[in-house]
Amino acid sequence: MPHTQPLLRTALRSVILLTLSMGSAMGQRAPADASTLDAAAIAARTYARWVDSRGNILLPKEFATDWTHLGSWAVLEKDQVKDLHGVYAPKEELQYFRSNGRFPDGAVLVKEVRHARGSTHTTGQAFWAEDVAVWFVMIKDEKGRFPGNPIWGDGWGWGLFKGADPARQAATDYKKDCMGCHTPVKDKDWLYAYAYPVLGPAAIAQAPAKPAVSAAKPGAPTSGAAVFERCVSCHSLTPDKHGIGPSLAGVAGRKAGSSSGFAYSAAMKNSAVVWGRETLDRHLRDVKGFIPGNNMAYMFAAGVQQEQERAALIEYLLSK
Ligand code: HEC
Ligand code: HEC
């Protein structure tokens, strides 16, 4: 795949942006037609159809048949495509973005995550989408419509639906369920819009000069500080300066879950783990399994799989 460009994500799995052919939609401004709604009409439609008066979010099922496909992501795990992500929005929103460089109040975005399966085809190793793991929904809210509702805030409503149960919205707190992984694009309206060329030049221009999470160059000596770049969207090395994750200053010799002022999961707080060379190694190799149920597991499940990188990172952390 000549266009394969390792993009990076907080989850530290390699992510490839499939540069899809967007055909004639690229480069030309969408003409205003009867289906073009203005911003107020978009908001009115969204809040009538997909959000109830208390701020509960419904899955807009028609996305797959009636909306525009903005783009796709392939998420790799050990050279295999594990999941395929497709992102969709109503056509009017796409037109609004192409004219204004941003989404309007009431914009709805759906990301469908499907498990992928692959085998050798006449094109080479090719993967296709199978069953749905989850749907993510974001609904733009410039008015702060639902104060106190924990799935609304920072300009959006944040919804999650599991493949097996599309009728039930499953997010309970967007700060825990969503924000950690979207922190790298905090100043881009919380969106990875640069991956959707169909939105036009304003979206593409948002691509980061330096990927949010960088992979070491093959052959280059591994520096712990460079590997730590993958942690900085959530962890600082300044004492007591907590972010999405706790400060890692002085982590060596510390009992897991014991830094004051950070709200840990019960799993981490109640574990008997003391951080040192061996326990850090096990946590970073198996973020889900070493302390089951800890909150880092679903934000950064991939950990650090490459042995030299992990070793260099741990020496770096032990020195801080
Ligand atoms: C494990 C990290 C992670 C978590 C947790 C997460 N996201 Fe995302 N999300 C991403 C990344 C990275 C992308 C873009 C790349 C991709 O899909 O791999 C993305 C893309 C999206 C998109 C498509 C629009 C865009 O920004 O590109 C939507 C919609 C979305 N997420 C909604 C949510 C909602 C709602 C939640 C919480 C219920 C959530 N996400 C939780 C990492 C995450
Ligand atoms: C997307 C956010 C995120 C990223 C990226 C992340 N972590 Fe975490 N980390 C967390 C959260 C949240 C916790 C708290 C977990 C809990 O309470 O269950 C945590 C906890 C930890 C702890 C336990 C600290 C303590 O005080 O007990 C260590 C060690 C750790 N992370 C190391 C790392 C390292 C090293 C990296 C980079 C390779 C990293 N993390 C990347 C979110 C993240």
TrEMBL record:
Protein name per UniProt: Cytochrome P460 family protein
PROSITE patterns, per the entry: CYTC (PS51007)
Annotated signal peptide: 1-27
Keywords: Electron transport, Heme, Iron, Metal-binding, Plasmid, Signal, Transport
Domain Cytochrome c: 219-320
PANTHER family xref list: CYTOCHROME C
Pfam family, one: Cytochrome_P460
Taxonomy of the source species: Bacteria, Pseudomonadati, Pseudomonadota, Betaproteobacteria, Burkholderiales
InterPro entries with a match to the protein in the record: Cyt_c-like_dom, Cyt_c-like_dom_sf, Cyt_c_1A/1B, Cytochrome_P460, Cytochrome_P460_sp, Multihaem_cyt_sf
